[in-house]
């Protein structure tokens, strides 16, 4: 007698399974890994969201805000727009290509592709970065509701859920757009052409008027032309992300019907986002077809290693070619320039000048340069044995010392990060037409202080938290939260001299003493890197089999 077939799991069962697998893969959990440490890392990475939420909760309860007819709606609508924009652009800012793989990873599961996409989208709402992203809006909304009686509180909760789903859906659109570009045959040309087109288009858009900053002065916000704030609040409420903030305002005035219409609007645009995301995802998997991703540019018969003079030079050239051909590196290299264009388009430098005075260019140029260096150095140095696919297995089979391999990787990643910072700093000087030689040198020595710390930390993180990275972009295992937090800590330590020097300079701007101070720490950090590298090399020989199993597992 045959046994009856077990029932197919429902959507919520699939969702629980998906969350469990995401947690297991995301924490890189296996034998010997501490679940307590993994939970602590999750809570630690989500902790900033609590502080942000409480801050905006208190802000919305200030008497000046509570008794105003404009400021509560402006703050809510602005937070709605910023939250949605952060969600949608995050795949670009972080070059995130790790979540797209679930359709292929779980292909054998009894689940339809669309249900898997839905479950993956809902599951993304409970990741640490998501908790941080929508914490300010959550705190502001709760603070607003605590001071204003809402006609239908249940509808406010529905609006909040729909807004979160709207952000998650369009974040998937951004993610799958990015992976389709990375997977394209001519990805480098597409990204380069897109950035040039963006630069040209931005040059025709008039910058935002920031003259009101100087009119505020010592008079405070009361000196502001409130018509500007009112028009901004209305404009923000008329775009889909603003439906949530405007809906809360409508409920506070007893207009349940209008709030209900805005809930349907959020539902409609969420469905539209899911439809576009599903189409982009299926397009990616149809075109994957075994190609290795990106225009590798190696169709010619010329041998790139024909002119190398030594084995170490060959290793260096191989690492340079792998990094150059990596689609993720191309995307990361484009991000600081896009941020600089957006900064000028939104007149962001004027705001920094108002807040920071003569130090504004050093802060902004240094921030963009450090960001460009950090995303290149940390992304590849913290997974240095796996970002090129199965390349580590080739090194193990070759008659060479793994210490040379590590030195070559460190050198290429460090030089790439420094070169990226120089390009970003030069672009800022030419594009904005501002910034002194001292500002530029402060930025460059700040990068020189950060990169050694990233390389030193990356060597150990690569040995103790190795993850598999597929060069074809078909699948990328997640970097464990513990490794991410340790990497952030290393970057923070590297940035501390730059931050301290500019804070000491105040609004007068940095001087040559600031450059000397940061340069001294750059030398110190380089010494730390040199002192820790021999230990990393010895550990590499001891853990070579562990690393190999981790980066080649299927």
Question: What can you see in these coordinates?
Answer:
The chain is an all-alpha fold. It has helices spanning 11-26, 35-59, 63-66, 71-94, 102-105, 113-123, 128-133, 135-147, 153-183, 187-203, 212-216, 226-237, 242-252, 256-288, 311-325, 327-345, 348-356, 360-381, 391-397, 402-432, 437-464, 481-505, 512-542, 544-552. The longest helix is centred in the middle third of the chain and has 33 residues, at 256-288. The chain crosses the membrane at residues 36-59, 71-93, 154-178, 190-208, 256-281, 329-346, 353-378, 415-432, 444-467, 479-499, 511-531. Keywords: Membrane, Transmembrane, Transmembrane helix.
List descriptors.
mainly alpha, single chain, 24 helices, 554 residues
Binned strand content:
under 5%
Average of per-residue pLDDT values: 78
**Rounded Rg:** 25 Å
What is the helix tally?
24
- Outline: globular
Low-confidence stretches: 28-32, 290-301
Major sheet: none
Order of helices and strands: HHHHHHHHHHHHHHHHHHHHHHHH
Measured as a percent range, the helix fraction is over 70%
Structural class: mainly alpha
Number of strands: 0
* Terminal Cα span: 37 Å
Transmembrane segments: 36-59, 71-93, 154-178, 190-208, 256-281, 329-346, 353-378, 415-432, 444-467, 479-499, 511-531
Keywords: Membrane, Transmembrane, Transmembrane helix
């Amino acid at each position: 007698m045959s046994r009856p077939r077990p029932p197919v799991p429902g959507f919520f069962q699939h969702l629980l399974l998906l969350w469990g697998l995401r947690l297991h893969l995301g924490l890189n959990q296996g034998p010997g890994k501490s679940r307590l440490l993994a939970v602590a890392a999750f809570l630690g990475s989500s902790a900033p969201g609590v502080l942000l939420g409480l801050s905006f909760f208190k802000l919305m309860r200030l008497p000046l805000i509570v008794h105003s007819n404009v400021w509560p709606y402006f703050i809510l609508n602005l937070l709605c727009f910023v939250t949605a924009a952060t969600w949608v652009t995050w795949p670009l800012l972080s070059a995130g290509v790790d979540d797209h793989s679930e359709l292929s990873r779980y292909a054998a599961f009894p689940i339809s592709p669309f249900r898997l996409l839905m479950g993956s989208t809902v599951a993304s709402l409970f990741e640490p970065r998501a908790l941080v992203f929508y914490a300010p809006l959550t705190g502001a909304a709760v603070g607003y509701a605590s001071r204003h009686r809402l006609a239908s509180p249940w509808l406010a909760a529905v609006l909040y859920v729909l807004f979160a789903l709207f952000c998650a859906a369009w974040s998937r659109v951004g993610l799958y757009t990015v992976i389709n570009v990375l997977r394209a045959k001519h990805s480098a040309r597409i990204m380069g052409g897109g950035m040039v087109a963006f630069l040209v288009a931005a040059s025709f858009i008039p910058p935002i008027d920031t003259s009101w900053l100087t009119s505020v002065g010592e008079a405070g916000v009361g000196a502001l032309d409130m018509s500007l704030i009112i028009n901004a609040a209305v404009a923000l409420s008329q775009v889909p992300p603003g439906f949530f903030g405007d809906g809360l305002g409508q409920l506070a005035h007893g207009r349940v019907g209008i709030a209900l219409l805005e809930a349907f609007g959020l539902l409609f645009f969420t469905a539209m986002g899911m439809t576009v995301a599903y189409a982009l995802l299926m397009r990616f998997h149809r075109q994957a077809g075994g190609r290795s991703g990106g225009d590798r540019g190696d169709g010619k018969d010329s041998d790139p290693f024909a002119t190398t003079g030594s084995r170490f030079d060959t290793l260096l050239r191989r690492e340079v070619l792998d990094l150059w051909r990596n689609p993720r590196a191309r995307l990361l290299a484009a991000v600081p320039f896009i941020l600089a264009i957006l900064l000028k388009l939104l007149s962001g430098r004027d705001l920094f000048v108002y807040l920071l005075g003569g130090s504004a260019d050093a802060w902004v140029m240094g921030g963009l340069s450090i960001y460009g260096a950090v995303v290149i150095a940390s992304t590849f140095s913290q997974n240095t044995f796996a970002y090129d696919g199965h390349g580590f297995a080739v090194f193990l089979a070759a008659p060479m010392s793994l210490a040379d391999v590590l030195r070559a990787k460190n050198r290429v990643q460090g030089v790439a990060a420094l070169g990226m910072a120089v390009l970003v700093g030069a672009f800022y000087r030419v594009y904005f037409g501002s910034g002194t030689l001292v500002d530029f040198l402060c930025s460059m020595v700040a990068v020189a202080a950060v990169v050694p710390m990233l390389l030193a930390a990356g060597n150990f993180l690569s040995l103790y938290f190795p993850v598999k990275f597929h060069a074809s972009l078909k699948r990328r295992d997640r970097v464990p939260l513990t490794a991410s937090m340790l990497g952030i800590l290393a970057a923070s330590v590297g940035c501390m001299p730059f931050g301290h020097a500019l804070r000491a300079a105040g609004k007068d701007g940095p001087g040559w003493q600031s450059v000397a101070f940061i340069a001294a720490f750059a030398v110190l950090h380089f010494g730390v890197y040199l002192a820790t590298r021999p230990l990393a090399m010895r550990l590499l020989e001891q853990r070579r089999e562990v690393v190999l199993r981790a980066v080649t597992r299927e």
